[in-house]
Specification:
- One of its GO terms (molecular function) is dihydroneopterin triphosphate pyrophosphohydrolase activity.
- It comes from Keguizhuia sedimenti.
- Keywords: Hydrolase.
- Its EC number is 3.6.1.67.
- InterPro entries: NUDIX_hydrolase-like_dom_sf (IPR015797), NUDIX_hydrolase_dom (IPR000086).
- It is a single chain.
- By secondary structure, the chain is of the alpha+beta class.
- The protein has one domain: Nucleoside Triphosphate Pyrophosphohydrolase (Alpha-Beta Complex), CATH 3.90.79.10.
- It is built from 5 helices and 7 strands.
- A 4-stranded mixed sheet has the order 4-1-6-5, with helices on both faces. The protein has a 3-stranded antiparallel sheet with strand order 3-2-7.
- A hairpin with a 6-residue loop joins strand 2 and strand 3.
- Helix 3 packs antiparallel against helix 4.
- It starts with 8 loop residues before the first strand and ends with a helix.
- The mean pLDDT is 91.
Length: 167
Protein backbone atom coordinates (compact mmCIF):
# COMPACT_ATOMS: atom_id res chain seq x y z
CA UNK A 1 0.00 0.00 0.00
CA UNK A 2 1.33 3.45 -0.95
CA UNK A 3 0.94 5.98 1.81
CA UNK A 4 -0.01 9.50 0.73
CA UNK A 5 1.88 12.06 2.75
CA UNK A 6 0.84 15.61 3.48
CA UNK A 7 2.62 18.32 1.55
CA UNK A 8 4.61 20.55 3.94
CA UNK A 9 3.08 23.71 2.51
CA UNK A 10 -0.15 24.96 4.03
CA UNK A 11 -2.51 27.86 4.54
CA UNK A 12 -3.71 29.55 7.70
CA UNK A 13 -6.97 31.46 7.18
CA UNK A 14 -8.01 33.97 9.84
CA UNK A 15 -11.78 34.31 9.52
CA UNK A 16 -13.11 37.56 10.97
CA UNK A 17 -16.04 39.99 11.02
CA UNK A 18 -15.98 43.75 10.49
CA UNK A 19 -16.11 44.09 14.30
CA UNK A 20 -12.81 42.11 14.47
CA UNK A 21 -14.38 39.04 16.02
CA UNK A 22 -12.39 35.98 14.98
CA UNK A 23 -13.61 32.44 14.42
CA UNK A 24 -11.72 29.74 16.34
CA UNK A 25 -12.28 26.02 15.95
CA UNK A 26 -11.25 23.29 18.38
CA UNK A 27 -9.29 20.34 16.99
CA UNK A 28 -10.95 16.93 17.32
CA UNK A 29 -7.60 15.18 17.78
CA UNK A 30 -6.34 17.48 20.57
CA UNK A 31 -8.79 18.79 23.18
CA UNK A 32 -8.53 22.52 23.91
CA UNK A 33 -6.33 23.14 20.86
CA UNK A 34 -8.06 26.16 19.34
CA UNK A 35 -7.03 27.50 15.96
CA UNK A 36 -8.04 29.25 12.78
CA UNK A 37 -8.65 27.25 9.60
CA UNK A 38 -5.48 25.47 8.48
CA UNK A 39 -4.66 22.90 5.88
CA UNK A 40 -2.08 21.60 3.45
CA UNK A 41 -2.13 21.71 -0.32
CA UNK A 42 -3.80 18.68 -1.91
CA UNK A 43 -1.07 18.54 -4.53
CA UNK A 44 2.10 20.50 -5.26
CA UNK A 45 0.45 22.41 -8.14
CA UNK A 46 -2.63 23.52 -6.18
CA UNK A 47 -2.66 27.35 -6.05
CA UNK A 48 -2.63 28.73 -2.51
CA UNK A 49 -5.91 30.61 -3.06
CA UNK A 50 -7.52 27.31 -4.07
CA UNK A 51 -6.10 25.63 -0.95
CA UNK A 52 -7.53 28.41 1.23
CA UNK A 53 -10.96 28.27 -0.45
CA UNK A 54 -11.08 24.47 -0.15
CA UNK A 55 -9.95 24.38 3.49
CA UNK A 56 -12.45 27.04 4.55
CA UNK A 57 -15.22 25.05 2.84
CA UNK A 58 -14.13 21.69 4.29
CA UNK A 59 -13.61 22.93 7.84
CA UNK A 60 -16.41 25.49 8.26
CA UNK A 61 -18.91 25.04 5.43
CA UNK A 62 -18.30 28.68 4.43
CA UNK A 63 -18.20 28.96 0.65
CA UNK A 64 -16.14 31.40 -1.37
CA UNK A 65 -16.58 32.15 -5.08
CA UNK A 66 -13.92 30.81 -7.40
CA UNK A 67 -13.34 27.44 -5.78
CA UNK A 68 -12.63 24.25 -7.68
CA UNK A 69 -15.25 22.41 -9.68
CA UNK A 70 -15.47 19.94 -6.77
CA UNK A 71 -16.34 22.70 -4.28
CA UNK A 72 -18.86 24.19 -6.72
CA UNK A 73 -20.50 20.79 -7.16
CA UNK A 74 -20.90 20.54 -3.39
CA UNK A 75 -22.55 23.95 -3.24
CA UNK A 76 -26.33 23.90 -3.53
CA UNK A 77 -26.86 27.66 -3.28
CA UNK A 78 -24.40 29.87 -5.15
CA UNK A 79 -26.13 32.96 -3.72
CA UNK A 80 -24.74 32.14 -0.26
CA UNK A 81 -21.13 32.22 -1.47
CA UNK A 82 -18.83 34.98 -0.30
CA UNK A 83 -17.12 37.09 -2.95
CA UNK A 84 -13.58 35.97 -3.70
CA UNK A 85 -12.44 39.52 -2.87
CA UNK A 86 -13.25 38.80 0.80
CA UNK A 87 -10.30 36.38 0.86
CA UNK A 88 -7.00 38.23 1.04
CA UNK A 89 -3.47 36.88 0.84
CA UNK A 90 -1.63 38.70 3.63
CA UNK A 91 1.75 37.88 2.02
CA UNK A 92 3.03 36.44 5.28
CA UNK A 93 4.88 33.14 5.41
CA UNK A 94 5.75 31.25 8.56
CA UNK A 95 8.22 28.39 8.50
CA UNK A 96 7.92 26.26 11.59
CA UNK A 97 8.83 22.92 13.07
CA UNK A 98 5.99 20.42 12.62
CA UNK A 99 4.72 19.25 16.00
CA UNK A 100 6.10 15.73 16.65
CA UNK A 101 2.59 14.39 17.27
CA UNK A 102 1.70 15.16 13.61
CA UNK A 103 5.00 14.32 11.85
CA UNK A 104 3.81 10.83 10.86
CA UNK A 105 1.50 12.54 8.35
CA UNK A 106 4.52 13.78 6.36
CA UNK A 107 7.18 11.92 4.39
CA UNK A 108 10.08 10.55 6.43
CA UNK A 109 12.57 13.29 7.27
CA UNK A 110 10.12 16.17 6.76
CA UNK A 111 10.15 18.29 9.92
CA UNK A 112 9.30 21.81 8.72
CA UNK A 113 6.21 23.36 7.14
CA UNK A 114 5.73 26.61 5.25
CA UNK A 115 2.44 28.28 6.15
CA UNK A 116 0.87 31.06 4.05
CA UNK A 117 -1.46 33.43 5.90
CA UNK A 118 -4.81 34.63 4.52
CA UNK A 119 -7.66 36.65 5.98
CA UNK A 120 -11.35 36.13 5.21
CA UNK A 121 -13.94 38.80 6.00
CA UNK A 122 -17.37 37.29 6.73
CA UNK A 123 -20.68 38.79 7.82
CA UNK A 124 -21.50 38.53 11.53
CA UNK A 125 -23.74 35.55 12.20
CA UNK A 126 -22.58 33.53 9.20
CA UNK A 127 -23.47 29.85 9.74
CA UNK A 128 -20.53 27.59 10.57
CA UNK A 129 -20.75 23.85 9.92
CA UNK A 130 -17.76 21.97 11.29
CA UNK A 131 -16.33 18.75 9.92
CA UNK A 132 -16.76 16.52 13.02
CA UNK A 133 -13.76 14.36 12.21
CA UNK A 134 -11.57 17.50 12.29
CA UNK A 135 -13.18 19.92 14.77
CA UNK A 136 -15.49 19.69 17.77
CA UNK A 137 -16.62 23.24 18.56
CA UNK A 138 -16.30 26.77 17.35
CA UNK A 139 -16.46 30.20 18.95
CA UNK A 140 -16.22 33.84 17.97
CA UNK A 141 -13.97 36.05 20.11
CA UNK A 142 -12.62 39.59 19.90
CA UNK A 143 -9.31 39.31 18.07
CA UNK A 144 -7.01 39.81 21.09
CA UNK A 145 -8.88 37.16 23.10
CA UNK A 146 -8.80 34.83 20.10
CA UNK A 147 -5.03 35.24 19.83
CA UNK A 148 -4.65 34.38 23.53
CA UNK A 149 -6.70 31.18 23.07
CA UNK A 150 -4.69 29.79 20.10
CA UNK A 151 -2.27 26.95 20.80
CA UNK A 152 -0.09 27.93 17.82
CA UNK A 153 2.23 30.91 18.16
CA UNK A 154 2.10 31.66 14.41
CA UNK A 155 -1.72 31.58 14.51
CA UNK A 156 -1.80 33.93 17.51
CA UNK A 157 0.60 36.33 15.79
CA UNK A 158 -1.49 36.32 12.58
CA UNK A 159 -4.62 37.19 14.55
CA UNK A 160 -2.83 40.02 16.36
CA UNK A 161 -1.83 41.44 12.95
CA UNK A 162 -5.46 41.54 11.79
CA UNK A 163 -6.00 45.33 12.20
CA UNK A 164 -3.03 46.17 9.96
CA UNK A 165 -4.37 43.97 7.15
CA UNK A 166 -7.75 45.71 6.95
CA UNK A 167 -8.24 47.73 3.79
Amino acid sequence: MNKTYKIPESVLVVIYTSDLDVLLIERADKANYWQSVTGSKDNADEPLFETAIREVWEETGIRIEGGSAHAKALSEDADSMLPRANLQDWHVQNVYEIYPVWRHRYAPGVTRNTEHVFGLLVPAGIPVTLSPREHLRHMWLPYREAADKCFSASNAEAILQLPRHLT
